[in-house]
């Protein structure tokens, strides 16, 4: 018996070892990004394998944030590639926020119509909405680009946010699921009291669904923040360029010989930081909602 | 998988408009009788405008444009089947398809096995939300960020991966720079980003399997391996099928990593289909031809999804 137990615990230890290995593989690249961003780009090549930053310095962050002088930058191996970080950060914040607020609000309205109102053809219309989930984004990107161009909105905030502003099938689907589960009695009581649908929606359904609404807002915000393809098409110019696009350009601009790895990693880390921060605070919600919804 | 599409009970049944009011029930409210159509239209208006303008109409327009010659400068000109004829003979199109399939096979193969392992390990060992959260983290940062981190780590000179290879006595590899390694590299980078997310979906599927099944097997003295093949795999199949359909479709749409790292090169080794469409449309302005490639991609994806669902019998569960 003790033999079986020992074998069992041995196997359990092995299983834990594999799981810990998975966790290490997940976290190591994040650490490596931090390590390189805190290194002096000139001495990086001499110690590619050391686990600590080489010649610890905040120089790379200063270069990226534009608070290093040219002399300081070149002394630490900064390249000529420039990144106007604050502007791109502001662009990402603004476009993602506008997309989130509008998309969640309009999707919630639609979800209300699909979940709480009764009208002929409701299920059919909902099914048509859902089919949009099957369309690969590139399938609509070409004509959407033409639309935005013809509206004269290339290289504007409006052009970047427009296709995401009104709905996504996922947001409608997600919110409808929660709205369906709200008890009808509360609503009926309000109706007896003479409340209109606007009142029911704003005063009952939305407050009662604040948790799922916060979750979908978070998911939409992260999705918008990470989006690359669409802003690459319509928002190349400097004054509307978002962080993802800026990072791509920054990397393309850095010279083949002696690129500014520290600067690149510092910029990358700063671009990922808001999402990592959001996740640290709201991680549990995100994990639960992904398990709940399955799709995304 | 708790997608809950079928969960409409309680609201789906039509209002009993004609049935006589039961005794004691409140009098029927006339406002609800006619249905809520006018109100529903108001609530649906913004979403419907968005759906029509940015999903439905562009989808139809892509289909139309695929039969035209269109360079953005002049209005589209009807070209019949020209684009499709050109597609059949386009060596680069077939190459992009081949490269994409290679990517998908490596990406999905490794990712599914690793995610399954992760999910089973988590299921058997721990309920820790923190561990699940950590494993999910890469999925939440942008593709571009992930691509750049790995681009740095896999660099031929100062990348830690090559350093590690050197420590164990192997030659350095130019991961992104070699035609033979570029696609596997990109595929594995994206495995890193998506594996935790996929594991989480499978984990949710595992939690739906009743514990009693395992307890019964354990009392019968079944080994872990036997339980995995005889209980976990069959009962997880519907969830696995759905996850596979979603991840395969997602995997075909690889673009960001390629655009940031290799830009289709070296030579045509990473010119995946999404990137090929992007080049045709936005660098060469062959919008009509790019639309035809889009239609071909859509047909492939739709066919693949149907085939997978059929083969894996995603709809029915062995639990019944």
UniProtKB/TrEMBL annotation, chain A:
Highest taxon in the source lineage: Bacteria
CDD domains on file: TM_PBP2
Keyword Repeat: no
Domain ABC transmembrane type-1, first and last residues per copy: 89-282
Topology within the bilayer: Multi-pass membrane protein
Transmembrane segments: 14-34, 93-114, 126-145, 157-179, 200-224, 264-287
Keywords: Cell membrane, Membrane, Transmembrane, Transmembrane helix, Transport
Any one GO biological process: transmembrane transport
Cellular component per GO, a single term: plasma membrane
InterPro entries reported for this sequence: MetI-like (IPR000515), MetI-like_sf (IPR035906)
Subcellular location: Cell membrane
Family annotation (Gene3D superfamilies): MetI-like
Family the UniProt entry places it in: Belongs to the binding-protein-dependent transport system permease family.
The protein's name in its UniProt record: Carbohydrate ABC transporter permease
